């Protein structure tokens, strides 16, 4: 007993070589004192899946505290519970020897940021009497040591990380225990490009995710590349319109990339605003880049869309916009495409995304031209225009796609149309549509 505190103290200062000598810490390794009847219970607990560990929380931790061989998945789950702070143990800086005793075998599987946070005057005496194995003690000492070294040089504590482009499971598990500052020191552009999605899957804390985000801001000041943006996962919540104000969005192709890879409407609006602020023009190329996100343009911007620009923007698609926007753009689009009216299939292909603003008479004209309108386009038409169509008009408008109508018969849009039709006309379609205007007795008798 008496020599051990000084030995451990030595270890802490000088590294692990001394630890391998037969005196000191080794002497206190004692794993043989287990009662057999407890042994069986212990084995089954030790095989708990990561999911059940996560589900049982602190209780699960106590059950695992005697297990010497934990899988990487179990370790990840254990670390997640501890770093979530959802335990009665409190933060590591307040842990007492009683907490360490309860966690026991779970102490060596913690990473250096937790180990370093445990008060030294609690951790060191406990280690001497913990019964941890020699290799566990070495691991703990190494963890404490490496973070000390880092603090001196402001370097990533794990130099190897800098030379690997792709993080493997062990490396990302290690990173989950880094302090936010260390994470920023260690992450490289390659890690962020290749493995950004892993940061959402491995139990990083909010503070760590914020550090990853801040590293992204540092590495990609002109905006994250699409491959990163589309896989941000939990980090996505940290991205704001304010960020986008700092990005370089000065061409239609950048607009297209960013609109296609950010996840939320507020961010897309910010992308468009940033383009406008950078002196971008609302021309055909921009509208083509905007595609379905034209709905996000404000009134001033929308009023700048003329026939020529619509012609140059085959991807422009206001079909999901408000009816006010559709009503505004349809007449312009109709004028833009009237020169190709002689080629009906081409005319229809171009006018289709704008038809939500078309009046009933234009839909009737379409129904005479074998357009075979798809049901998605149909259900986005203007309700008041569709109500002007009779059963024959709709049959001809949908053509070969008429069979898709029954699937939508319970939608308010189709219901409103059905309620204006005679049931006998609906029956003539043979689609089983119900809810039309009732017939007189004579008609019913004749059908029977
Ligand atoms: C080691 O385990 C034995 C039981 O096998 C026990 O009697 C002894 O007190 C333990 N030693 C320490 C230091 O815990
Ligand atoms: C905290 O852990 C318990 C189980 O120990 C769980 O039921 C609860 O949902 C957890 N709370 C949070 C906020 O994760
Ligand atoms: C990583 O390595 C590159 C050169 O390969 C070097 O310029 C950079 O400073 C290193 N980063 C860290 C954090 O060590
Ligand atoms: C890191 O990225 C590579 C390549 O995309 C992938 O194979 C690997 O599984 C990722 N690592 C983790 C821990 O997700
Ligand atoms: C935008 O850039 C400025 C100057 O580079 C920086 O100070 C600011 O924090 C950045 N804002 C955001 C939200 O990234
Ligand atoms: C529309 O956005 C532009 C910036 O693109 C702005 O200058 C203008 O004031 C906005 N107009 C309205 C009506 O909000």
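Sequence proposed for the structure above (448 residues):
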């Amino acid at each position: 007993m008496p020599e051990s505190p000084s030995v451990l103290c030595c270890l802490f200062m000088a590294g692990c070589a001394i630890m391998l000598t037969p005196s000191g810490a080794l002497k206190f390794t004692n794993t043989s004192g287990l009662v057999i009847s407890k042994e069986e219970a212990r084995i089954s607990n030790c095989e708990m899946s990561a999911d059940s560990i996560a589900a049982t929380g602190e209780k699960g931790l106590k059950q695992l505290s005697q297990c010497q061989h934990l899988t990487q998945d179990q370790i990840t789950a254990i670390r997640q519970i501890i770093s979530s702070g959802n335990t009665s143990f409190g933060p590591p800086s307040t842990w007492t020897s009683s907490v360490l005793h309860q966690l026991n075998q779970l102490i060596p599987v913690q990473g250096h940021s937790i180990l370093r946070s445990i008060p030294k005057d609690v951790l060191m005496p406990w280690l001497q009497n913990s019964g941890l194995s020699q290799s566990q003690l070495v691991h703990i000492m190494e963890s404490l040591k490496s973070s000390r070294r880092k603090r001196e040089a402001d370097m990533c504590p794990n130099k190897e990380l800098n030379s690997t482009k792709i993080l493997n499971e062990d490396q990302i598990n290690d990173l989950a225990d880094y302090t936010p500052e260390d994470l920023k020191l260690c992450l490289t552009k390659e890690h962020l490009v290749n493995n950004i999605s892993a940061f959402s899957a491995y139990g990083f804390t909010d503070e760590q995710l914020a550090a990853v985000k801040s590293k992204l801001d540092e590495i990609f000041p002109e905006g994250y590349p699409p491959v990163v943006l589309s896989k941000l996962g939990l980090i996505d919540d940290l991205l704001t319109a304010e960020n986008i104000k700092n990005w370089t969005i000065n061409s239609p192709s950048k607009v297209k990339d960013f609109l296609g890879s950010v996840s939320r409407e507020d961010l897309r609006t910010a992308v468009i605003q940033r383009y406008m602020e950078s002196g971008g023009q609302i021309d055909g190329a921009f509208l083509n880049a905007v595609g379905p996100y034209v709905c996000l343009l404000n009134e001033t911007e929308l009023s700048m869309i003329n026939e020529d620009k619509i012609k140059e923007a085959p991807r422009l698609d206001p079909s999901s916009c408000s009816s006010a926007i559709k009503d505004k753009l349809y007449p312009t689009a109709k004028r833009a495409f009237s020169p190709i009216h002689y080629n009906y299939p081409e005319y229809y292909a171009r006018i289709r995304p704008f038809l939500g603003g078309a009046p009933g008479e234009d839909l009737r004209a379409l129904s005479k031209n074998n357009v075979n309108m798809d049901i998605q386009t149909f259900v986005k038409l203007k309700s008041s225009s569709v109500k002007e169509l009779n059963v024959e008009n709709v049959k001809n408008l949908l053509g070969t796609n008429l069979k898709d109508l029954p699937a939508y018969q319970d939608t308010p849009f189709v219901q409103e149309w059905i309620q204006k039709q005679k049931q006998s006309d609906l029956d003539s379609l043979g689609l089983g549509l119900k809810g039309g205007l009732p017939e007189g007795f004579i008609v019913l008798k004749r059908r029977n």
